Amino acid sequence: MGSLSFDNLHARKRNAMVKLVKGKEIAVQLQTLLREPVRDRGPVSAENLAFQIYRSFSDSLSELSSCTSDQIPAAEGGASASASSGDSGSKKKRGVKDRRGCYKRRRTSDSWVTVFPSMEDNYAWRKYGQKAIFGSDHPRSYFRCTYKKEGCKALKQVQRINGDEVMYQTTYLNHHTCNETLRAPPLVVDSNPIDPHLISFQTSNPSEQDNHGQYGNNSTKKPLVVSSVKLEECVSEDASNEAKSTLEVPWHDITGLDYDVWAPYQGEVESASLHGLDMEVDQLSDIQNFHYIF
DNA sequence: TTGATTTGACCAGT
DNA sequence: ACTGGTCAAATCAA
């Protein structure tokens, strides 16, 4: 315990800041690009820039959330030792192994939440469970990183939110330790036949496309939108304080936008959309003060 | 044949 | 007791 020095903590926060600022710079590039007529645009694609922005934010979130995991030493340790205790011989069906104590219920540490119209995030996930959730019309799906065998502990839970719009709340647990960026399937950006101004994030893996079907959503419509980001409190003045609090950081607080951000894609760029991006980029200048929030 | 998904059971936390 | 998270056998798909 206590191996995380202040210097280390600040280094991670600094890394997160660097990534956020990088995302901002890419957003400026995207803004500039979108101001050009489609025919005059260079080799740099808007979808590539949008993906880089997404990854910058995703990486910075991982960086920030990892602060918390370091502050909770062995949060998952302990009780697993009781797994081998010999009081077997209770209810067993279909010859199932005794799994008592074989897993630990995770704490809510090192987690963050996003709300997307898509469950895709360009990481390679493997589904390991699905559960009907009390009070929800839709089941919750459980995914772990495909490269768990190599030690990556990243998990995510995806649940469709009740409502007319197809929105998925994704809770991420632990950050990727695998080299997932080299392995993730290539990003395929497809225009939406209904609204060509929307960027569609999806993989080229047809099986993953099929997986969307069980949720009954239209897999072709996946515009980039993050409604809120939930981060664990990264800095605690009182390290002995066991009660960790979380704080909700609305997307609005980061971007200054009070509406969903829809990234224009191809064809004519509507002035309203461009104006929205103007606001986003301008408000992102506040990112420099981001660390004061935590 | 192999890897991914489905699904019911098991288990932990409240 | 209830709810949600995980496991693992069965099943599916490439």
Automatic annotation (TrEMBL):
GO CC field: nucleus
Bias-annotated ranges (Basic residues): 91-102
Region (Disordered): 75-102
Annotated keywords: DNA-binding, Nucleus, Transcription, Transcription regulation
A Pfam family reported for this protein in Swiss-Prot or TrEMBL: WRKY
Entry-linked InterPro entries: WRKY_dom, WRKY_dom_sf, WRKY_plant
PROSITE patterns: WRKY
Species, as recorded: Salvia divinorum
Superkingdom classification of source: Eukaryota
Protein name, UniProt field: WRKY transcription factor
One example GO MF annotation: DNA binding
Residue ranges occupied by any WRKY domain in the UniProt entry: 114-181
Signal peptide start-end: none
Segments of skewed composition (Low complexity): 77-88
Main location: nucleus
Subcellular compartments: Nucleus
